[in-house]
Amino acid sequence: MDPITPPRSSSSSLSWSSWSSPPSVLSHKQQVRVAVIGAGLSGLALGQLLQNAPNVQVTVYEKSLGLDSLSGYRIMVSHFVLRRLHASLSKDIWRKIALSIGISPKDGHELTFMKSSGQEMFSFDAEEMKDSSSVSRWLLRNALLHKSGRFVKFGKTFERFEKLPNGVVNVFFEDGRVEECDLLVGADGVGSKVRNQLLPNSRVSDSDVAVIYFKIPLTPDTKILLPAPSAVMAFMLNNQNIMVHSWVNPRKPWATKFDDYEIAPEDSFIMFGYGSPVGDFLNKEKPPGKFSPEELKEECIARIRLVPNADPRFIALAEKCLINTAYVHVVRDCQAVKRWDTSSITLIGDAVFNISTMLGKGANCAMLDALDLAERLRISDPIMPATRQYELQTCAAENVKRRLRERQRSGLIESLVYFGDNKLQEFCRKQGLKRALGWIDDPHAKDFHSNKQSAV
Ligand SMILES: Cc1cc2nc3c(=O)[nH]c(=O)nc-3n(C[C@H](O)[C@H](O)[C@H](O)COP(=O)(O)OP(=O)(O)OC[C@H]3O[C@@H](n4cnc5c(N)ncnc54)[C@H](O)[C@@H]3O)c2cc1C
Question: Which Pfam family would be a valid example here (predicted)?
Answer without folding.
Answer: NAD_binding_8
